[in-house]
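note to self — DONT lose this again. spent like an hour looking for the file last time. sequence + predicted structure for the chain T wanted, 145 res
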Amino acid sequence: MRRTVVGILAAVTLAAGCASMDSGTMAPKSLYDRLGGKPAITAVVDDFVANVAADGRINQRFANANMPRLKTMLVDQICEATGGPCKYTGHSMIESHKGMNIRDAEFTALVEDLVKSLDKFKVPAQEKNELLTALGGMKPQIVGK
């Protein structure tokens, strides 16, 4: 159960290689920095997990999840994957979702819950699109496994 959200957010955050330019140094600025760093990631994850818990389409998948651990793993995973200083120590997406038989509709529900959180925190369109594009690319590693 926990692994499903971890997997979705891992997929979402594989856009770490995308960068904009920092006007002060003209050096690439990581997605982590553009998202607002760990405090902003933590706020989005907290809201996202609350959305998932309230979503009758998928909340049964998380009924037995250790929510504090889930949130910590998600934050670390997003932080690392977007170029931040954290270290994610969880399983791969394929390993995490093996035998779970995640359906397309469940994947879509998680994406919708994430979009709701990203919109709530006014994540800029470019960063939101980078995250969602990466998520779509991970779908084969999550759905139907």
